[in-house]
Amino acid sequence: MKRRTTSALVASVGALALVLSACEAPDGGDSQLVIGTEDLGGYNPVNGYSVDGNSPFYDGLLRLQEDPGTGQMPDLTPALAAAEPKANEDSSAWTVKLREGVTFSDDSAFDAQDVAATYRAIIDPDSASEVVDAFRMIEDIETPDESTVVFRLSEPTPTFASRLTLGILPSEAIEKGTPAADWSVNSEPVGTGAYVLESLTSDTAVLKATDDYWRTTPELKSVTIQAYADSSALAAAVSDGKVSGAAVPPRSVDKIAGEDHEIVTARTADWRGLTLPSDNPFTASATVRKALNIAIDRNKIVDEVLAGHGTPASTPVGEFYGDAYEPSANFELDVKAAQRMLDDAGWKKGDDGLRSKNGQSASIPFTYPAGDSVRGDIAAEVAAQLKPLGITVEVEADEWDEIEKSMTKQAIVYAGGEQPYNIDHQIRAALHTHTSTSGVFDNPSDVEIPGADELLDHAAEETDEAKANADYRRVQDLYMDDPSYLIVAFLEHTYVADTDGWDVPDTTFEPHVHGSDWGPWWNLADWTKS
């Protein structure tokens, strides 16, 4: 999905180059990591930055562990929390004991008031947070003492612990009555993280390690983030050897990697596909949307567009969700059946080989965000596969501000998986019809899947995990009859890095957001000199 200034360190795979430059030998004193990006600023957790707990500036109550390699989600472990959060009997109240002796980068003490202020701000309508829907169930927050926070929820929420990765601000940094996108912390972050922002200009951010970081003493002392005009400039820098590490499109990773670099990959819940607009005469039909889904060769897209760095997908739910995953919810390639379905729906081929119905052509405008080569390649491949069916597709790139104006009329090359560490948000954001807390890019086509809302609402509150999983599987079944997207794959994020002289933690299971906060760089505080 789109992320505007919510994070300075995130963008699409094709839009980031992460540079290890001027990296001295392990015994050479301070070592520096230089990161290339397109955007700087937007370091505000209340507006979604570090919502998944990954940031050099902030810590959450919980933090991610390394990918266990089991095919399942990684565990969450206490960070600013002193112990695992405890739920009451029906999971409608969660108590968190806090770590003591932690300070923010402005030297103020961390305590329960800071946690309460951060979470209250995210659900405050005046903040206009882009991620408020994930926290919609918070009704009240109590602070019995400086080391205890109690979250009172409006409904039982067994998966609430996954919301506790959000970066925590000091209460003094909360600007009440003002949209979070305008707060000072967007350019002057104040957190408990391993790094502080030493300086920020229009094209350069310099981060310095905090020697008294509560969890460890970082050995990587300096990080510089350098902004480039666009992803083409970043790619050129990698190709020309001006940089020595990058998060790159999957088709480019083998070309860029050399003997001095290693290819690093990460499993993800980051899916790619196209929205199927509800206001388009052709795709307004559930029959047409299903026909399009069985007309697409997903294996070819994974093999050729993603160079094998992905897994074919039909829904927003992958095997990594365990028993909540419905393996039969899978669109099998059947072009002839797709043609029959289009014929039966009245979309017939004319003498020119193009389909139409009642004088309207079977056409779909494909739009992808300018500068994102992976999405552009997916759009081109899907368009090429649909052309023999008599479907007219026009592909164009545009800026997000323009795309946002007509999301129900165009097929957007889309991404999901922004907050994947609980299935509730992963599937709800994609499939639930709009509510008062929905984000701008939740269910952008505004397609209703009959019966899905009720199942999603019930599953989110169900304390019996087996019953909740049954609800989620049923939603996937319903989606097969009335799909609202043309989902093609879960990506494997691909990185090229020169980490010589360093022992680097394994990658973790990544959300859609990726880049300098992820890959081999997701845990910079734990890099050690080898």
Key terms for this structure?
about 525 residues; alpha+beta; 6-stranded mixed beta sheet; 5-stranded mixed beta sheet; 11 helices; about 20% helix; disordered N terminus
What does this entry look like structurally?
With 530 residues, the protein is of the alpha+beta class. It is built from 11 helices and 27 strands. It has a 6-stranded mixed β-sheet, with helices on both faces. The protein has a 5-stranded mixed β-sheet with strand order 2-3-12-11-10, covered by helices on one side. The longest helix is centred in the last third of the chain and has 17 residues, at 465-481. The radius of gyration is 23 Å and the shape is globular.
Care to give the gist of this entry?
With 530 residues, the protein is α+β, with helices and mostly antiparallel strands. Helix content is 20%, strand content 22%.
For the secondary structure, the number of strands is 27
Q: Main sheet?
A: 6 strands, mixed
List the strand order in the largest sheet: 16-23-15-22-20-21
Structural class determined from secondary elements: alpha+beta
